[in-house]
Amino acid sequence: MFVLGIGFAAKRSVSSSIDFFLSGRSLPAWVTGLAFISANLGAIEIMGMSATGAEFGMPTMHYFWIGAIPAMLFLGVVMMPFYYGSKVRSVPEFMRRRFGTGAHLVNAVSFALAQVLIAGVNLFLLASVVNALLGWPLWVSLVIAAAVVLSYTALGGLSAAIYNEVLQFFVIVAALLPLTLIGLNKVGGYEGLKEKVTAGPSGGADLSSWPGQALSGFDSPLLSVIGIVLGLGFVLSFGYWTTNFVEVQRAMASESMSAAQRTPIIGAFPKMFIPFIVVIPGMIAAVTVNELATFKENGGTGGSVDYNDALLLLMRDLLPNGMLGLAIAGLLASFMAGMAANISAFNTVFSYDLWEQYVVKDREDSYYLQVGRVVTVAATVLAIGTAFLAAGYANLMTYLQTLFGFFNAPLFATFILGMFWKRMTPTAGWMGLVSGTAAAVTVWLLSGDVLGVIGIEGQGGAFVAAGAAFAVDIVVSVAVSLMTKPREYGELKGLVWSLTPKESFQDEHPSRLSWYQNPNKLAGLALAMVIVLNFIFA
Predict the structure, then answer these.
(1) C-alpha angle 282/223/271, rounded to 5°?
(2) What is the pLDDT of residues 229-239, one digit of tens each?
């Protein structure tokens, strides 16, 4: 009822499409910063990372310290000035201004498809928890869970989603922190956990984050490190955090350029500590929950449970009824936050970038506001359908990394080349995207998960697919650019780094900002902290 109340309260401030889709660009940095990280702290993050922690252990930390923080800081320092300064309403709209309608249409359609698929993952896990608690059939749980998220998102738009995400962030932390502490106490602290993991099937390999061969799927330690750093840390990570409108939309809702830049940087500070309440419980579950321990000893096959059940099983075994209720509330909050983020990004891109651009042009603003609300309903219904696709994966992070390789890796290649190379042409923009996506799909089909032609599978296969998408996109884009005519350079101000005046990248009076309001100084502090964490747990 409380989250619905926020939806009704936010509805009063929605009088235009910008209010509905971008909160009127009026929110302070601390609100958008917490919403930025909470939007990512959904079912995929909570259940997926705890599952990966149960399966691989400490190498899962790479998804945070290598595969998130550097890209988030790059987004804040380098890319948000382009997004916010150009006053675009979405990431695909930036693509249209830089490359024209070809790349724009490819990006908008692929993004919309990805969001429906990812929203389905969040919805599936949300419904699974409702099913486990109340025993309702899965389809009933899906419909009821979707209805709650739909209600407040359709009412209050992005503002309702953001304020609920801030609330849900604190609920999630309050739910998972006690679980971690109780779990560590049961196994005798971190030293006790190390002893139990060492006695398990991994022989202690789960305790070292590097070289992470089990996670990457490479037998060679050197190739494993290269795969993690380049595949996860560069291509997948930068592709996700810097071009994913689900995250960028929160920063676009900020009240100023500085606030927009600080949004992902503020989010980086809690992000670097999230693994201690997500990954560590997964590791504890793998050595204390009998069914899961047996499943892992059998190589991840057989049994009535899988790695996705790690967190729920640990809650079942460790928490008394009162705390169990709080923990379940935290899970439900995280699932709603993730799904609402996907739906709010989908309705913006569909309404602005597809419907207004290609179907019904030049109508009054109220018309597009109404389209956004209708599309929110349609996206929720589609998410119910795609939720069933997630059921076939024992570890949902494999499913998600595969999707990111398809959609985000080629997009990042196009973005980064077009942002720093003024010679890149509109034709190269869309041809690079299509070629990169085709390369990722081809590698996936040849991997051990499908045809088995390439002897690598799981998340390592996703890393290779992403790397192939990035490389092919770059090669095709460069080749096509050299054979086609570029745009007039005067048209690219605010879209290409070398052609944009420095003052366009900052607020009107940057010298008046305190040190904690300075994006570069905050980013430097966050980077130093994450480097220290990498060394401590190497």
Answers:
(1) 40
(2) 887 788 878 88
